[in-house]
Specification:
Strands 1, 2, 3, 4, 5, 6, 7 and 8 form an 8-stranded mixed β-sheet that branches. This protein has 3 domains: 112 residues, Butyryl-Coa Dehydrogenase, subunit A, domain 1; 106 residues, Butyryl-CoA Dehydrogenase, subunit A, domain 2 (Beta Barrel), CATH 2.40.110.10; 154 residues, Butyryl-CoA Dehydrogenase, subunit A, domain 3, CATH 1.20.140. It is globular and about 80 Å long. Helix content is 48%, strand content 14%. A hairpin with a 5-residue loop joins β4 and β5. The structure holds flavin-adenine dinucleotide. Flavin-adenine dinucleotide binds next to β1, β3 and α10.
């Protein structure tokens, strides 16, 4: 019997083709980061491969990848360009995945094929006064004459100024007075004004913008899921998003390691040397760079195993959220640590604005922030542990673990 997450030949081809296509785009992507422009040419180049519909089923023009495969594809994105990787992840996992998992058949049929063809998707939850505490959003949606009228503002929306499809969260009140958050699908047009484009320290080729919603009028059918279920929808989407974004952060670490190893190999003179006590005439000892690279590689492999384990559990519809938080915490912090240590290793060159290692260092920070900061991951992980201490144990069967561990 074929394991559902076993790599199918066509997926292997997809990942190889994706890797080559991304490599071809590398010079252009580096330029986009330098000039701070959205990489439309790379987006277009990846349309024929199916990169904009990686996790949508084939009936919506998607590739129908499992999350096990998708996490590996995102690692390839992260390895080449952390900005385009965030675009791919947020477009697929946040915007499209919300419509796929919770939208009506009409919304799925309308928007998923568009997204798969490279119309960019954005997901707007965060507001100036509501980041980690997403329940505090203030944007409102009122039902009037069979239409929802949205008012408020969103901040730090990835693809905010380039999207053709938006998923927007707003506070709704039911006729019985019950209040909650609901999710809506929207398109650019009257009622959505693009505000300030953020000038960021890193991820400069990823578009991030504020949105102003001024009497945005949406047909009643644009509600995603049931009214007042939006908070639960957002949390479930973020649970899966954490597994996906771990793949990106792992790719950033791998890309940084590859770059540094090449750099060291090509360097004639020895870099800083940290010899251990056992170093002798016949034993040259351990150099600082070897020690750093070996430790980071060990942690890369460990974090990847956790991320792929979470992805397998997701694919098997088993409880995965605990492992998704572990993967996000490990991989986000690892990307930051790896790029910091590797920047130290290469010395003064790292202080230049055009140094690739410096770019990766700046790009990495987001992976400790977006889709739940490291502190929020730690909070959620500890909550799971205090109610299920057995989560400290090795899962009874890595591929068959459904007793405890969070949301399906
Ligand atoms: C480049 C970028 C792209 C983004 N893209 C999107 C997007 O597409 N869509 C979207 O909706 N949002 C997006 N965001 C927003 C992102 O999700 C938030 O920045 C994130 O959720 C943190 O919220 P905050 O920045 O308001 O920080 P806050 O929530 O104000 O947190 C500030 C600090 O306090 C800590 N903290 C908060 N609560 C606790 C707690 N209970 N216990 C301990 N520590 C705590 C945090 O870890 C952090 O260190 C993006 C952000 C960035 C930087």
């Amino acid at each position: 019997m074929q394991n559902e997450t076993m790599k199918k030949p066509e997926t292997k081809n997809f990942i190889v083709k994706l890797k080559n296509a991304l490599e071809n785009q590398r010079p252009y992507l580096d330029q986009c980061s330098q000039k701070e422009v959205f990489p439309w040419e790379a987006v277009k180049a990846l349309i024929p491969l199916g990169a904009w519909g990686m996790i949508y089923p084939k009936e919506y023009n998607g590739l129908g990848l499992s999350h096990y495969e998708y996490v590996q594809a995102l690692e390839e994105f992260g390895r080449v360009d952390p900005s385009l990787a965030l675009t791919a992840e947020s477009h697929n996992s946040l915007c499209g995945h919300t419509i796929l998992q919770f939208g009506s058949e009409e919304l799925r049929a309308k928007y998923l094929p568009l997204l798969a063809k490279g119309t960019m998707g954005a997901w707007a939850l965060t507001e100036a006064e509501a980041g980690s505490d997403a329940k505090s959003i203030r944007t409102t949606a009122q039902l009037k004459d069979n239409h929802w009228i949205l008012n408020g503002s969103k901040t730090f929306t990835t693809q905010g100024s380039v999207a053709g499809v938006y998923v927007i969260f707003a506070v709704t009140a039911l006729p019985n007075g019950e209040k909650g958050i609901s999710a809506f699908a929207a398109e650019p047009g009257p009622g959505i004004e693009i505000g300030k484009k953020e000038i960021k320290m890193g991820l400069r080729a990823s578009d991030t913008a504020q949105l102003y919603l001024n009497n945005l009028k949406l047909p009643q059918e644009n509600l995603i899921g049931a009214p007042n279920q939006g908070f639960s929808i957002a949390m479930k989407i973020l649970d899966a998003g954490r597994v996906a974004i771990s793949g990106v952060a792992l790719g950033v670490t791998r890309g940084a390691l590859e770059w540094t190893i090449n750099k060291i190999k090509n360097k004639k003179q020895e870099t800083r040397s940290l010899r251990t006590r056992w170093a002798g005439k016949d034993n040259p000892g351990l150099k600082a760079e070897q020690k750093i690279i070996a430790h980071l590689t060990a942690r890369l492999h460990a974090a990847r195993l956790v991320a792929l384990h979470a992805a397998r559990l997701f694919d098997q519809k088993k409880r995965y959220a605990f492992y998704g938080c572990l993967a996000k915490l490990l991989s986000g912090e690892l990307a930051m640590q790896a790029t910091t240590q590797l920047l130290d290793l290469i010395g003064e060159e790292g202080g230049r604005i055009d140094c690739h290692a410096a770019k990766l260092f700046r790009d990495s920070k987001l992976y400790e922030i977006g889709e739940g900061t490291s502190e929020v991951q730690a909070l959620v992980i500890s909550r799971y542990l205090f109610s299920n201490p057995e989560l400290l144990l090795k899962p009874p069967n890595l591929y068959d673990f459904n007793e405890v561990g969070g949301n399906k």
